[in-house]
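This follows on from our talk about sequence and fold. Please put the record directly below this note.
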Amino acid sequence: MRSLVLFSAVGLLGCSESEVNFSPSEPLPTGEASIGGQVCDDARQVWLEGASVYTHVYDADGVAYDTRLTTTDAVGKWQLTDLPGDLDYTVYVAHRNEILQSFSVTVPAGEHVETPPPTCFGDVELSVAVVTGGFDDLTGLFTALGIGSYDTIDGQVGDEIVQFLSDPFTMANYQVVFFDGGHQEDGVIYSDAQDATVDTILQAIRDYVNSGGTILATDWSYDVVERAFPDRVDFLGDDTIADSAQQGEPGDLTATVQDTDLANALGKGQVDVVYDMSVWPLVESVSTDVTVHLSADAPYRVGMDVHYVPQSPLLVSFEEGGGRVILTTYRNSVNDTGDMLGVLQYMLGDLAAP
């Protein structure tokens, strides 16, 4: 196994096999030293998953006799272990057969050296507000994204949600406003009768987005998009009736990545999306100026019969004035690793670009 890994990594450097001594005359030194770090995709300003990170180990005569190789995880982190100490190492980062960077690291015996992290999405000051609900706790997601601080607006108890959403100038302090599923909606986002408060809130949300803000509505908070921007997304059921679109069947869907740039960023054309709520909102169609990023044949039930919305949009976004609206029909808190974390990084990456 060692020779296979060595051949692969040395091949990336363009070294010939003859440069590597597979049978050193002296016992191979081992060590407890290690090097760690993190890799950012500079173009997209997201942490890069799946990059190869490696270094060669040389003997006293300068002959490479082994290679340490690893890959970056979902948030771009890596660690090379079992390194002899008191040596200088050249670390290489490669992705899709291209060496992205190389750098030298001196490692004392038995110690771990953490290389300085690059400036990336999580390191850029991104002002975030979360309208809290009962169904999509974003704490773990923000940790994975590197968002260390954010303000919360109580969306379940009291008038805090009304006060916040009624004032576009207060909202303007934030680049992104997240709406958790399960916040107050009746008397806030919709009402059975003409309601001045609801009208004020919907206009304030539109003003916030038009002036450059971004909102991200998740799962059961889809009503924010349906009511504030009624002409952009056509949901299943009667759009004038609250929660009418919440008919999706729970389960996992294999989604097609419709957005070419997103597919290139992920390096694949399909991703698995988890739907763990008893019901979720289905989208039937979108207007021509809405981008569909993910779609799948989506099941819903009428009585005992299961029907499908063919290639129902699962993740969409659109520009409005100077801002943007993002809608995920799924809960992000259960789609916060691997490919789906990369999807959200991609959706928010331009906001955090230096």
The longest helix spans residues 196-210. The mean pLDDT is 84. The chain has two domains: 2-114, 121-352. The first strand starts at residue 33 and ends at 38.
